[in-house]
Amino acid sequence: MTTSMVTFFTTLLVILMSFQTESLQHPMPSPYYSGSVKAGYWPSGNSLSPSSIDTRYFTHIYYAFVEPEPNTFNLIITSSDQNYIPQFINGLSSRNPPVKTILSIGGGSSNATLFSLMASTVKNRAAFINSTIQVARQYGFDGLDLDWEFPQNEQDMANLALLFKEWHQAVVLEAKVHRRPRLLLTAAVYYAHTIVLIGPSRRSYPAQAIKDYLDWASPMCFDYHGAWSNFTGYNNALFDPKSNISTQFGLGSWIQSGVPPSKLVFGLPLYGRAWKLQDPKVHGDGAPAVGAADGTDGTMNYNDILEFNKKNKATVVFDRSAVSYYTYAGTTWMSYDDAPSMTRKVQYAKSLGLKGYFFWQVGGDRSWTMSRQASSSWGH
């Protein structure tokens, strides 16, 4: 540990002795804790300027992503981050109505083994936690988000529970020491409580720790199917009578695990999944495919899908049972959401009592069409 880290945690230990242990085992009140969440991720360097985000449709915006250093587990703030983070914070601070900003750590391209090592010991967790708080305060973020994709086994999940507990205790104490609102703590998680389709083993998230120590968890209810499969499928079907790969099943499993619906913020994609059809004449859900659609990496933003439909006079189909759209033209087939399916999904989540929703990612929208629709469907 560095000298500053030792000093920080020595201070925490002293303060711990002056407070009842029980008061640190459960979430402390925060001015940001109540109310609905309408969130979106902004990938650093995105062509959409943070100062252009229409905050009428959001309550929280995430900065994505930073990662821990492999040896010290301190956050790496690259030269690009040093440029983009102030743009992000300053750009959003000028918007009205105001939004809360959250620093997201990890992401889909991050190293899951690195997070496993970080969470495996008290010392490593302490180094990581201290660094996250220091960086968040240095740049003026309102919260911290962990996007570990994904814990690989039950030991990782047990360590994740310890991380959430210690992280929560640290942000509570830091707020007490400096007499300021504590930082939010959130985490992006698998669409279902138990991970079964990714990695070597079946493993379940620590529901009790999520309930006790996070402001909310964010199930990523998308990427159910993609060009890695040799058949087409819906990116984020609300219902699927043939399998458990659906938002209905995923959210239900989280609630059944004991995580209150009021601690869940579910994910919606502002992009579609795109395949190349094996035979253009066979173009339904589950049609044979041969990888990503030509000219794509297997994805396409909502804005670009609308342009594709117009340019190619594509056939658009709404699947009422899945509550999803698909479109096809030539050999290209894509599944995506449009306003009516977005409305149904948001209303369904609200009917379950969820805390809110988030988008990946805000730059994929078209003139804030989907953001406006979701916000209106959710209400206040």
From TrEMBL:
One of its GO terms (biological process) is chitin catabolic process. It comes from the Eukaryota. InterPro entries: Chitinase_II/V-like_cat, Chitinase_insertion_sf, GH, Glyco_hydro18_cat, Glyco_hydro_18_chit_AS, Glycosyl_Hydrlase_18. Residues 36-380 form the GH18 domain. GO terms for molecular function: chitin binding; chitinase activity. The keyword Signal applies. CDD domains: GH18_plant_chitinase_class_V (cd02879). Keywords: Glycoprotein, Glycosidase, Hydrolase, Signal. Residues 1-23 form the signal peptide. Pfam families: Glyco_hydro_18. GO terms for cellular component: extracellular region. Belongs to the glycosyl hydrolase 18 family. Chitinase class V subfamily. This is Class V chitinase CHIT5. It comes from Arachis duranensis (Wild peanut).
